Amino acid sequence: MIRVLIADDEPMIRAGIRAVLATDPDITVVAEAGDGHQAVELVHRHRPRVAVLDIRMPGTGGIEAAREIHRTAPATGVIMLTTFGEDDYILQALGGGAMGFLIKSGEPEELIAGVRAVADGAAYLSPKVAARVVAHLASGGAGALADRRTAARARVDALTGREREVLALLGGGLSNGRIARRLHVVEGTVKAHVSSILARLGVENRAAAAVVAHEAGLLPPSAPEQR
Question: Where 4-aspartylphosphate occurs along the chain (predicted)?
């Protein structure tokens, strides 16, 4: 059973998230919070596997809460809920330890897929979020976009062939276990590859590595299984 905490300052949004998650028998919502401070307290009390946080809340916002959860309760993976126009916040959250990013207006299936992926230790960027992040990073215009894509491809080309395979699957939202099964290797081997990928790309976490994969146009050969 995947235990989930929901944090959003709008009760109707929380109710909607709870209703979507209730359609999956393997997911249970154990707590709800109206702001980031309360979310951190409830994470410590209930120890959920996943915390779904609105990126902007009054008082302590989602980014600050994500950083504190990552620091004090690292076993809880954080998914950030965002809307269009919050690209700067997404970039801040990437550096704060968040593992997943979803658009509030996205499909309900994406929420369930994201929760399952993060519960399994994977990074999850909805396609819309990935596209927004890449576009925002290259907001200087077409030339900047081309430059960033070229730089990302150069970083990816410096990886070994196997590391590129792993990065593509990581960017597609697969956990180490699922990557291992896809590539027919042991999970420890994948873990070593991921550590090497993060170091060689110069990024701190899987979500940031997934952004590089999307920038480089490196995609898995088929859509990842989420179950």
Answer: 54
Residue 91: CB partners within 8 Å, gap ≥ 6?
A: 133, 136, 137
Distances, alpha carbon 103 to alpha carbons 126, 136, 150, 186, in Å = 7, 15, 27, 34
| Secondary structure class of 198 (helix, strand, coil) | helix
Q: Tell me the sheet residues that pair with 7.
A: 33, 53
**Contact between residue 89 and residue 16 where contact means Cβ atoms under 8 Å apart:** no
Tell me the whole-structure pTM to 2 decimals.
0.76
Q: Which of 8, 135, 31 is nearest to 81 (CA)?
A: 8
pLDDT band at 224 (very low <50, low <70, confident <90, very high): very low
Q: In whole angstroms, what is the distance from residue 16 CA to residue 80 CA?
A: 16
